Amino acid sequence: MKWSDLDSGTRSSMSQPELIQFAKDAGMVVIEADDHTLLIDIDSEAEFVLFKDRIDDLDELTDSTFIIKPSASEGEHRYIKVKMKKPFPPAERLFLQLYLGSHARREFLSFKRYCTGDGPYILLVRDDDMD
Questions:
Q1: What is the DSSP secondary structure assignment for residue 87, as one 8-state letter?
Q2: Which range is most confident: 2-11, 31-40, 110-119?
Q3: Which pLDDT tens digit goes with each residue over 48-73?
Q4: Do the beta carbons of residue 64 and residue 89 sit within 8 Å?
Q5: Which of 52, 66, 100, 123 could form a disulfide with 82 if both were Cys (CB 3.0 to 4.6 A apart)?
Q6: Does residue 58 contact residue 97 with C-beta atoms inside 8 Å?
Q7: What is the DSSP string of 12-51?
Q8: Distance from C-alpha of 14 to C-alpha of 78, rounded to nearest angstrom
Q9: Which residues are CB-neighbours of 88 under 8 A, at least 6 positions away?
Q10: Per-residue model confidence (pLDDT) at position 124
Q11: d(CA 121, CA 33)
């Protein structure tokens, strides 16, 4: 089975270690966030506009830089990696990702993993690296 064959319901039913191993076996790159990193999943132009409107707010907390990569899928889907000078704990990074327009369901599932200890809590699966 290929990564693209997994629907969101199947992915959300897998534990993080199972999901990571499946992605690696499928030849995908698993990007895990550290305390200085946000990984934002943008699914629509409206979410991207929200990101652009709010990214400067992050400067009130810490200096940051970001890179934007398109998704391999068609449409308006983008991934954004934000590197922050100041470290933040996982729950605060999840909040910041949501505030910056990341897909709400994804962030809820990440928060659920955080609450149950099924980490890592913040990651992206892509066909290439974000750097």
A1: -
A2: 31-40
A3: 999 999 999 999 999 999 999 987 76
A4: no
A5: 66
A6: no
A7: HHS-HHHHHHHHHHTTPEEEE--TTEEEEEE-SHHHHHHH
A8: 24
A9: 35, 36, 62, 96
A10: 83
A11: 8
Q: Are 126 and 29 in contact (CB under 8 A)?
A: yes
Question: How many residues are recorded in the chain?
Answer: 131
Per domain, the residue ranges of the chain are 3-126
pLDDT at 25 over 70: yes
Residues in contact with 112: Cβ distance below 8 Å, sequence separation at least 6, in sequence order: none
pTM of the entire structure? 0.86
User: What tokens appear for 43 in the block?
Assistant: 């699914």
Residue whose pair of structure tokens reads 């505030």 in the numeric block: 99
What 3 state SS string does 65-78 have? EEEEEECCCCCCCE
**SS3 assignment, position 64:** strand
